[in-house]
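Journal club prep — side note

Before the paper discussion, L.F. wants everyone to see what a predicted structure for a comparable chain looks like in C-alpha cell form. Sequence:
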Amino acid sequence: MELQRYSKQVLFHGIGEAGQQKIMQGRVLICGCGALGTVLADSIVRAGAGFVRIVDRDFVELSNLQRQVLFDEQDIADQLPKSVAAARKLTKINSSIEIEPVVADVSYENIRSLMQDVDLILDGTDNFETRYLLNDVSLDSGTPWIYGGCIGSHGQTMTILPGETACLRCLIEDVPDPGSVETCDTAGVLAPIINVIASLQVVDALKLLSGQRELIEPKLTVIDVWDGTFRRMNMQGLRERSGCPACNQGERIWLEGRQGSQSTILCGRNAVQISPPTKTKLSFDDLAERLTGVGTVNYNQYLFRVTVDDGAYELTAFGDGRVIIKGTEDIPTAKTLYARYIGN
C-alpha cells in the first residue's frame, strides 16, 4: 500500500522498487524556501523522501506568489514564515513522511546542526554567501549538495560530490563584486526558469537518494528559457586544475565564520535583514508592551511586526533576534532602525 502512492515512479526503469525504497529512507535538507526552495520541497516530498527539513529566514509576501508555488494569499493574511507555510501545505500532500520546518537564517553557527543527520543538501537560497557556506560544510562533512540559481530567464545548476567533483569555489572562487552580476532587482525573475532548474536539481537528488551516485555527471547546466538555449559544460578535471583553496587546501573560511555578513539586502524586497552579533531570544510580549503607541503592532507565535515612522518602515522580528526592515536597502539606515526600536 505504501508503494502505491509512488507507483508511476516505481515503474520508471531508472528507479524501480529498490530505488524507491531507498528514496523513502532518504533525509534531505532544503536551505531556502523561496522560488527554488518551494519547487524543490514540493517535488522531493511528492517523490517520497522520508525526511525533509526546510529552513528559511523569511515570511510570505504578495510578490512571492508569482513564482513560489507552495504559498497563497491566506499565508500572507496569517503572517506565516515561509518554512511553516510550506510544511502545512506539504503535510496535506504527503502525510506519510516527516517534514520539519525551521524558521532561521542559515549561518556558520547553525549549519552543522541543521545538516548533521541528512544525506543531501538542496540549494534553494538566493545569495552566494549562503551557497559558499553550504559548499564549505559539504566538503567538511562529505555530504553532497546540489547548487541552483536563477535570475531573469536564465539559471544554472551543478551537483557537487565532495572529493570527487569540482565544488562551487572551483567554479567561482569568491562572491561576485556588487554590481558585477544581475540581481532580481535589476533583471526580475521569470517563473518558468525556476521550475526548470529546480526540476533538474530534483532529478539528480533522486539519483543520489536511490543509491545511484555513479549517474551524476560533473557538469554545469546553464539554461535560458526565453532564448531557448541549453548548455552543459564539462567540469571534469576542474577540481585538479583550479587550485581551489577549499578543495585542495582545506580552507573553510565561511564555515569558520571568517567570511560572511550580519546584514543582508533582500533581493527585490526593498528590505534589509539585520542579525544580532550574538545569539539572543526576543520576547514578543515585551516588544509589544514597549512599542505599542510607537507604531502599529501585531504578532503571532512566529513573528512580531511593527510599522513605524508614519508607515515608512516595517520591522518584522523573529524569535532568534533577526529583524527584516522593509522600506530601505541602505544598511546603515536599517541598523539605525534596529537599534532604535529593537535594541543594541
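L.F.'s comment for the group: The chain has two domains: 2-242, 263-341. Keep this in mind when we get to the figures.
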